């Protein structure tokens, strides 16, 4: 006679795809690791302390609220990820109480007042960042000179250098990179090699290459801890795409719409007319890669269907462009994503799936 | 090579795991000493018991007669004595009376050569009546009475008749084996069906993961110059569903709330066609069926021809028992099947498989809140929003859920399969549908 030790009674389906909420959250956290390591390398151990404090504040807040509402949710990894992203989004030299407040605000106010995981309508980490950015503007824009820019005197980010420089500028540099060269923005030694390589490829084709793109792409620039290295952030996305944790829809529509607008209108400030904007400069500065691949793709606060995701991405690109070019903030990514978060329910309402076997009224 | 067609929207690719059993020929399962034969094995009204305790029954004798049009007969799978009438729960939640028959006496069919009967002179009406008497239902799992399905409304034209050999559920290989071993019988059954439905075109749908079956069916059609179009399909779950297989074959969509006949099609499973052959040509009622016993915890997976009423425990024992302790015992496929509570649960007409699954195969995880990933929407083959439907049902808004398409849901399980939050979405749909139907009956 056969006998069973235990029997599990469940409803169909009886098998499951090897995925879970926790797996998603931990996978995203793991994919952020290379960029985090780079932040610590570039800005020193202080950056590590900031990230650990942010994570600890987020996880403890989650734990405390979990005790109150009798829900044990730490292991799903979402609080860890929120804390890590808060750490990614603050400058390395920030006084530690600021990321703590950002994390607590993100978890307690943005996430739990709406009902915890899955119920928040805006990205908690971004909301925390924006909250403290408006409250402590000074510390949130005091940057640290990265390790590889030893002889730099100013620690302004490329975007803020351009933005503040343009107030009093009346020349026609042609583009942001030329402008930065004019004001003597520093470059690393490594950037020289990248520039030489780019020149050997593109100059025969008639293009002129300004130095500095290598620093932008690989992350030898001042900025928030996790946002500087576009290269390492992109490396991390390979796994996310392979596991289908994120899809191409948001990042591609975001980057294409933003890049398109920059290309069309971005050159006019430098006196070079339409269709001459420096797309590459704008893609790899101001935390856009971090925002487009890791923040705008947050499942909870992005639309449900592919069509909705595309609309969402385009909207993010549009608002990022508006804020970056016409607002008083140099970056614009966090605010753009939060603005689009507001539209998500509306987008969902009008981009539902097409039902099988249902034709629109009047059609045959 | 030409790209094989499939249904375009949604669907998933669960691990097939058919290699466990697909090369094993069908064997006769041993006869149970006590058969437990439920009177409700089909969709529609249960059969009415026509025997009482102590009666002696013969193999294939009617023990439950159909009650009404949407009902079929139930027959004794073995010769013996009626021991008791028992109230049992089937894994799908149906509560039904079951006739328990203790094996005794001589078999009328088993081990004897069977003559084929002339049927060409029978009219379509007589054939359909015979189906109901012989207890023929859809063998793919839905168990809808075949004579009802084959009675299209007057004036409708059957453009396509589809033999469904898709078998998209993982693990299951019974249909696959039937196509390899019973091909002559299946095509004889098709002749009967042609007489009833007179379709303009016959399509034979097989998924591309069964190349030997595709080859066997194609060469049989070539040799016998049969007007049947064999259509290999790209593998994707739930292609075996009528709506999806018709979309894949013809590009037409069965309207929401409608039936395949609305687009001029009738679909039958290969197992059903084989049962039609046996009922019409051999006068053998539906008392046994092909099923697959498989799963990571089964020592020797097998494809068996088991008598209706055989307890699950006996079939598992026949397959050598467990190689490791299973986490779940499932009747049917892993995507749509039900877990078994009681190992005495009998095989019914809809049991396409018995699976003993290990924890590694199930991959369960703790349920969390919905994280709005949208996976359920992108995999739903019917274009529903499972997340929304679940929420509406959860908030007791059944009217809203029905408006959002709840009744279209076929419970195929794609949404539940992909949900990272492990929310029991299908259970939500099932509950909502049941309550809606109950409310409608009351109103």
Describe this structure in words.
The complex is a heterodimer of chains A (364) and B (443). Chain A contains 17 helices and no strands. Chain A has helices at residues 21-31, 33-43, 45-69, 78-88, 97-112, 124-135, 137-140, 158-167, 176-182, 189-202, 213-218, 230-242, 249-265, 279-283, 288-295, 306-326, 333-350. The model of chain A has no long low-confidence stretch (mean pLDDT 92). With 443 residues, chain B is α/β, with parallel strands linked by helices. Among the domains of chain B are: 113-281, Rossmann fold (3-Layer(aba) Sandwich); 375-442, no CATH class. Chain B has helices at 124-134, 146-149, 174-181, 183-197, 211-223, 242-250, 270-281, 312-318, 359-362, 375-379, 386-394, 398-403, 414-418, 425-442, and strands at residues 26-28, 34-38, 48-49, 56-57, 62-65, 74-75, 80-89, 95-103, 160-165, 201-207, 228-233, 265-269, 288-294, 302-307, 328-331, 338-339, 353-357. In chain B, the strands form four sheets. In chain B, strands 1-14-13-17-15-16 form a six-stranded mixed beta sheet. The longest helix of chain B has 18 residues, at 425-442. The chains are: A mainly alpha (364), B alpha/beta (443). At the A-B interface, helix 1 of A face helix 8, strand 15, strand 16, helix 13 and helix 14 of B.
What is the average per-residue confidence, as pLDDT of chain B, rounded to a whole number? Answer: 93
Low-confidence stretches of chain A: none
Characterize the largest beta sheet of chain A: strand count, sense, and whether it forms a barrel.
Answer: none
Sum up the overall morphology of chain A in one term.
Answer: globular
Beta-strand content estimate of chain B? 15-25%
Q: Could you tell me the mean pLDDT of chain A? A: 92
Strand content of chain A: under 5%
């Amino acid at each position: 006679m056969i006998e069973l030790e235990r029997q599990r009674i469940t409803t169909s389906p009886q098998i499951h795809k090897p995925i879970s909420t926790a797996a998603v959250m931990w996978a995203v956290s793991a994919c952020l690791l290379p960029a985090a390591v780079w932040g610590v390398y570039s800005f020193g151990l202080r950056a590590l302390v900031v990230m650990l404090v942010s994570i600890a504040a987020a996880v403890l807040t989650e734990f405390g609220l979990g005790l109150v509402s009798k829900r044990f949710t730490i292991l799903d990894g979402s609080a860890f990820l929120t804390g890590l992203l808060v750490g990614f989004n603050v400058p390395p030299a920030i006084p530690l109480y600021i990321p703590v407040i950002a994390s607590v605000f993100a978890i307690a106010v943005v996430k739990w007042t709406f009902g915890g995981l899955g119920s928040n309508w805006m990205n908690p980490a971004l909301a925390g960042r924006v909250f403290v950015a408006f409250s402590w503007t000074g510390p949130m824009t005091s940057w640290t000179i990265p390790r590889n820019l030893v002889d730099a005197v100013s620690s302004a980010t490329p975007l803020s250098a351009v933005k503040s420089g343009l107030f009093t500028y009346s020349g026609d540099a042609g583009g942001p990179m030329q402008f930065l060269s004019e004001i003597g923005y520093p470059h690393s030694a490594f950037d020289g090699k990248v520039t030489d390589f780019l020149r050997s490829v593109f100059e025969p084709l008639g293009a002129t290459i300004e130095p500095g793109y290598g620093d932008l792409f690989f992350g030898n620039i001042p900025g928030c801890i996790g946002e500087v290295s576009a290269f390492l952030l992109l490396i991390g996305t390979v796994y996310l795409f392979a596991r289908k944790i994120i899809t191409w829809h948001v990042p591609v529509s975001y980057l294409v719409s933003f890049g398109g607008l920059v290309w069309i209108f971005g050159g006019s400030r430098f006196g070079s007319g339409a269709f001459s904007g420096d797309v590459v400069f704008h893609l790899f500065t101001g935390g856009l890669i971090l925002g487009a691949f890791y923040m705008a793709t947050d499942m909870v606060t992005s639309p449900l269907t592919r069509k909705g995701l595309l609309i969402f991405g385009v909207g993010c690109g549009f608002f990022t462009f508006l804020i970056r070019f016409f607002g008083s903030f140099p970056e614009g990514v966090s605010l753009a994503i939060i603005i689009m978060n507001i539209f998500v329910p509306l987008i969902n309402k009008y981009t539902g799936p097409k039902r099988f076997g249902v034709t629109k009224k009047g059609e045959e | 090579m030409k790209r094989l067609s499939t249904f375009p929207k949604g669907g998933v690719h669960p691990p097939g795991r058919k290699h466990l059993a697909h090369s094993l020929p069908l064997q006769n399962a041993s006869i149970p000493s006590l058969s437990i034969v439920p009177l409700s094995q089909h969709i529609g009204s249960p059969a009415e018991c026509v025997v009482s305790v102590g009666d002696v029954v013969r193999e294939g004798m009617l023990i439950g007669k159909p009650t009404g049009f949407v009902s079929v007969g139930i027959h004794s799978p073995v010769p013996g004595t009626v021991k008791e009438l028992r109230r049992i729960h089937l894994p799908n939640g149906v509560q039904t009376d079951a006739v328990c028959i203790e094996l005794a006496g001589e078999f009328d069919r088993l081990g004897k050569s069977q003559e084929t009967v002339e049927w060409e002179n029978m009219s379509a009406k007589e054939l359909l009546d015979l189906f109901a008497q012989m207890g023929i239902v859809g063998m793919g799992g839905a168990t809808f009475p075949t004579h009802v399905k084959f009675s299209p409304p007057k004036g409708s034209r059957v453009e396509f008749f589809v033999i469904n050999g898709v078998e998209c559920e993982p693990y299951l290989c019974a249909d696959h084996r039937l196509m390899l071993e019973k091909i002559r019988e299946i095509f004889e059954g098709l002749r009967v069906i042609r007489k009833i439905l007179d379709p303009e075109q016959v399509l034979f749908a097989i998924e591309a993961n069964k190349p030997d079956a595709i080859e066997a069916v194609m060469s049989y059609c070539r040799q016998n110059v049969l007007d049947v179009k064999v259509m290999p399909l790209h593998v994707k779950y739930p292609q075996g569903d009528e709506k999806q297989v018709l979309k894949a074959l013809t590009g037409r969509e069965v309207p929401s709330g409608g039936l395949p006949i609305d687009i001029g099609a009738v679909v039958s499973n290969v197992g059903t066609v084989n049962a039609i052959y046996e009922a019409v040509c051999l006068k053998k009622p539906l008392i046994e069926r092909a099923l697959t016993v498989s799963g990571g915890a089964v020592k020797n997976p097998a494809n068996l021809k088991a008598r209706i009423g055989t307890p699950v425990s006996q079939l598992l024992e026949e397959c050598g028992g467990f190689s490791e302790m299973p986490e779940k015992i499932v009747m049917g496929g892993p995507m749509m099947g039900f877990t078994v509570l009681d190992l005495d649960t009998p095989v019914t007409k809809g049991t396409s498989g018995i699976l003993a699954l290990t924890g590694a195969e199930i991959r369960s995880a703790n349920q969390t809140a919905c994280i709005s990933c949208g996976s359920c929407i992108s995999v739903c083959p019917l274009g529903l929003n499972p997340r929304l439907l679940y929420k509406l049902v959860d908030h007791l808004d059944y009217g809203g859920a029905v408006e959002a398409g709840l009744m279209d849901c076929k419970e195929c399980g794609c949404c539940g399969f992909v949900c990272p939050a492990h929310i029991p979405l299908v259970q939500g749909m099932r509950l909502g549908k049941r309550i809606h139907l109950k409310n409608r009956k009351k109103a």
